[in-house]
């Protein structure tokens, strides 16, 4: 049915399927519902929020959904995004969402999930993080170009969950730019992709063990406070062991994202080729996303200026990765 709709209808409305309908409250859907009437070629209101569907209406609605004539308004985008973000696998089923809308859903869902994990870093909550990240990788594996919309989603405010999601998207973006051809040639490497994604999102997990008054401090850190910050990678490694995460990709992101090519990073002062490839990618993503957000002690930099600064810092950051980032931002502004 949607193929027969005028273009302007598709720009204003989402068509929903049975899976989406079943995710709503049966008698009180969370948003207005519209029906396409073929006899007058118009979309009309079927249900308004605040009302209650009768039992016979719920049955009729299901039949009309199957017939392809039930829609929700894109004007209710924020409500729909919030709803879908609580059942993230629905993104894989809804073929009428735009890529930018799906990016909003992933950003909201993963930020909420990371917040819950940092508040309660236990196995049952971690499993939910992994489930949502693997939903993201399933979405991206179908078409790697989809990462572009996600890479444009950056929280401006610097919080631990916000930064983890920003870095997750940017780390995946850089990783895909570098290795998409390799993945396409070797589909069996799908597990590697899944685990790399998990590493990008979890790289800063050890920061959850640093007291907020230190993380959010606006004045210079004392030597003791700086030491606590610099042990967050070790705390992250301990969390990996406690949660029984046996993925080398996650370990590399957690252990190496503060190591630098010249050996002046931390915690192990590894240099050059001793730093894992994923660790280097994560280092660039982590630094870039931190520089582009409003932190307690520093205002956000312009993304282009941040990328340029990383590109110029050839002693500490790998040029093959920072140049990819800078070139991408240059092309975006053309």
Automatic annotation (TrEMBL):
CDD domains: HDc. Residues 136-334 form the HD-GYP domain. InterPro entries: HD/PDEase_dom, HD_GYP_dom. Transmembrane segments: none annotated. This is Hd-gyp domain.
């Amino acid at each position: 049915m949607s193929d027969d709709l005028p273009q302007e209808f598709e720009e204003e409305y989402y068509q929903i399927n049975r899976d989406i309908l079943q995710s709503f409250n049966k008698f009180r859907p969370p948003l207005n519902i519209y029906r396409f009437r073929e006899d007058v070629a118009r979309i009309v209101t079927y249900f308004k929020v605040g009302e209650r569907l009768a039992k016979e209406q719920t049955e009729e609605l299901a039949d009309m959904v199957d017939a392809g004539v039930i829609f929700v308004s894109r004007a209710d985008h924020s409500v729909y995004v919030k709803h879908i973000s609580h059942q993230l696998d629905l993104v894989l089923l809804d073929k009428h969402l735009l890529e930018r809308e799906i990016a909003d859903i992933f950003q909201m869902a993963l930020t909420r999930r990371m917040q819950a994990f940092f508040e309660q870093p236990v196995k049952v909550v971690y499993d939910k993080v992994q489930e949502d990240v693997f939903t993201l990788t399933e979405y991206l594996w179908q078409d790697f170009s989809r990462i572009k919309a996600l890479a444009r989603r950056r929280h401006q405010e610097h919080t631990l969950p916000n930064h983890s999601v920003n870095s997750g998207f940017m780390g995946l973006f850089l990783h895909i730019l570098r290795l998409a051809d390799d993945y396409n040639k070797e589909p069996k490497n799908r597990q590697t992709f899944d685990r790399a994604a998990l590493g990008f999102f979890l790289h800063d997990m050890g920061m959850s063990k640093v007291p907020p008054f230190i993380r959010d401090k606006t004045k210079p850190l004392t030597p003791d406070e700086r030491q606590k910050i610099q042990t967050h990678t070790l705390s992250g490694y301990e969390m990996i062991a406690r949660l029984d995460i046996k993925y080398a990709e996650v370990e590399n992101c957690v252990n190496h994202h503060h190591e630098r090519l010249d050996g002046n990073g931390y915690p192990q002062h590894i240099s050059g080729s001793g730093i894992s490839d994923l660790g280097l990618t994560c280092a660039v993503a982590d630094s870039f996303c931190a520089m582009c957000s409003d932190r307690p002690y520093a205002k956000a930099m312009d993304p282009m200026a941040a990328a340029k600064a990383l590109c110029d810092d050839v002693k500490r950051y790998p040029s093959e990765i920072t140049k990819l980032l800078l070139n991408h931002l240059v092309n975006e502004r053309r």
